[in-house]
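User: Can you predict the 3D structure for this chain?
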Amino acid sequence: MSARRRKAPEQTLFAFAEEQDERRKGVDALFASVPHFRTPARFLDLLFGTAHFRAYAPYNAMLIHVQRPQARYVLPAARWGRYNRVVRRSANPLVILRPFSPVCYLYDLADTRVQPGRADRFPPHWAERPEDDPVADVSPVLLNRLFGRLPLWGVAHETVPTGPASAGRLFVADAAPVPDLDVKIGATSVAWPPVYVLQTRESAPNTDIFTALVHELARLFCRHVRCAYEKGWGAGREQTESAESFETLVATWLVCRRQQVASAAYADLRDRLSALDEIPDISFDAVLDAVAEIETMLGDCTVEDGFLYRHSPSFAAQVRVTRDLQRRPPAF
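Assistant: Here is the predicted structure, written as structure tokens:
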């Protein structure tokens, strides 16, 4: 009988790492393999980097910062020509993900130079990365846009005379009778029962209301709230209460910071981090997913982009029927 070959130590370690990565994907695998990302100072620096590149999706903004923490303003090579700048020969590109294609290459301001005989048209203040939180209150346009998107996510809104200190509360709609949502579909609308109810305090300032909305939606999109959609989340996430509240706080601050809205979330986050030697065992992937979902709500989105369409087959079928009726020529 031949002796059984023993695995080399590095092979055993590699197999163990693969097994661990089965449970941790994306950024979470990075946090698990590079411990210094879990220190409060490094984590806060990562958050500022993700918030700074707000022209890019949250995940791509994080990728930019991880690849080059000192980056200040990044664009594709062709876009730098608008500012009379070209990419240097020695430049090292940054890689981000791109919809419907593998990747996109970006170049930092430091990787470019002004074209000979041209004036530099790049505004220097665009490259600033202030560490102070924005001081601007939320604009009525931004707040109303978020309110207007709630029906597409199956969320009804109510104002109450008094409420919790956070100025907001989200709960499953079956806990109380709530009127149907009025969901706009083209030139018509569909009445649909809400999945969740989001309450805000009547007397709260607009910025507090916006922060409360973002906070409660972050709880939903981080999957801290029981899923009441027809198509559920699948396997539930097992998180401690402390980790859940930290994830929600981080997502809230990132959304507010990327929208340049002043928020008490930063002071809360700074206080939490100052008391820690290491951040809680959170899923930063879940945080980035939540931020991206809320930013979808704040952008130009359609009925099909909403959670109600994506997670309720019966609602999606109703939307298709309604659209078919709208396309039919009028009967004579």
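Strands lie at 74-75, 85-87, 94-98, 101-108, 112-114, 155-160, 168-172, 181-185, 188-192, 196-201. Residues 195 and 220 are 12 Å apart (CA to CA).
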